[in-house]
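We include the pair:
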Amino acid sequence: MRIDKVHIKSQFKNLNDFKIDINENCMETVLIGLNATGKSNFLEALVIIFRDLDLERSPQPFFEYNITYECRGKIIEIDYSKTNGYQYLIEIVLI
């Protein structure tokens, strides 16, 4: 699995309208920043996103987000908002 883009659209701790575009040509990504700038909060948001997607009985997330990632030959985009719920877009990658 490779994460391409993440947008935390609503408030999650100190992240609000936070966007990160990860270079798809690099095998590693490093988060660098001063203390209290949101590095750990970003990682915690990723844990919440994927935990909630994995658990069938999980509660609705308490922040809105959009995430795009590649997994097993598919590009998956998930958009979650409190008003519209989950919206999915799945593209098959042809090699």
